[in-house]
Specification:
- The chain has 403 residues and is an alpha/beta fold.
- Helix content is 53%, strand content 16%.
- The strands form two sheets. Strands 3, 4, 5, 6, 7 and 8 form a six-stranded mixed β-sheet that branches.
- Helix 13 crosses helix 14.
- It is globular and about 65 Å long.
- 29% of the residues are buried.
Amino acid sequence: MTRIERKSDKVALKELLGADEDYLRTLVAAVVETTLEAEMAAALGAEKGERTQERLGYRSGYYRRSLVTRVGTLELRVPQDREGLFSTRLFERYQRSEKALVGALAEMYVQGVSTRKVKAITEELCGHSFSASAISQINKRLDKELAAFAARRLSEPYPYLILDARYERVREAGVISSQAVQIAIGVDWEGRRNVLAVELANRESRSSWKDFLLGLRERGLHGVEFVVSDDHPGLVAAIREVLPEAAWQRCYVHFLRNALDYVPRKVDDDCLQELRWFYDRRELSEVRQDLARWLTKWQAKYPKLTDWVEAHIEDTLTYYRLPQQHHKHMKSTNMLERLNQELKRRTHVVRIFPSSESCLRLIRALAVETHENWLEGTRYLNMAHLIEHKKEARRQIEQADAA
């Protein structure tokens, strides 16, 4: 992103916040109501107005509910079902992450590093100025619960593990730096996604990722068969050292982005689109045939690209070891990317965290929210497909040995 684009984004954000005094309250209410609708759809097994035999019940309008938050009182329309069975813990969860956000903003103001806009927002959020004791009270309500989440035992096996990092700007000792937010998501044998860990590191390195993975192992992580990540050298090295028994899948989305480094800035042909199509094939044999034709077709025009693809594409095809039904979900880190986008949407209000502690507090609170929603929602994957796939692979091996 260029400096002009960044400046434009900042101006747009300031205009958006300044144009409507109730902007924050309206935004939060919309997010909460959208989440309530999603929870109701999951509970009934059908979207609003959807006709399906799997439907578990029917909607019955809405009731009004007031939710007191730091952005003011929200007047919400809460969906209800005919049998009166639907209930939500969203209000409890929302208040937890909302308090973490307020704590971070408040700490910025107390330390004297906030902008005029942040000062205005924090006073609107809490209705008064901030003291160190007030901030301490806000944060103490969260830290114990979040620490328990971060240290909990991982008793169940997680055959699938997805790893990635994003960056947040943090002020430490008067210096602003980018710190890596390391995140691990596991899929258990029930096919449900779990946020396993969220940690901060000064940078992505072999040692920081190794410590992260060893921390997971110490908490009981086991049964990992397949790991998805980008190709950051430190991360890949740590995976191979700590989880040598697991197959590694290089995220194909990151791979395609990296491919842009090996072609001219403006590519006006189908070269990259054809490369993208490889990942829609059902069988690995089809990919190999397409790859051979693609290399022959584009070698003369883009020799750097074709040489690079030929040398590295195998790492992006590991997912063909899995049942075909899992390919879409396990060939990339998109599952985690969507979580990262949600984190970014919520943390951009702070922009520069006043400390590592406040940064980690807010992100973990949001991660707990997501984790609980995943566990109570529908299954992400049908793991029976993996069980049958492994049985079939064993049968083929036994038949080959017998022959």
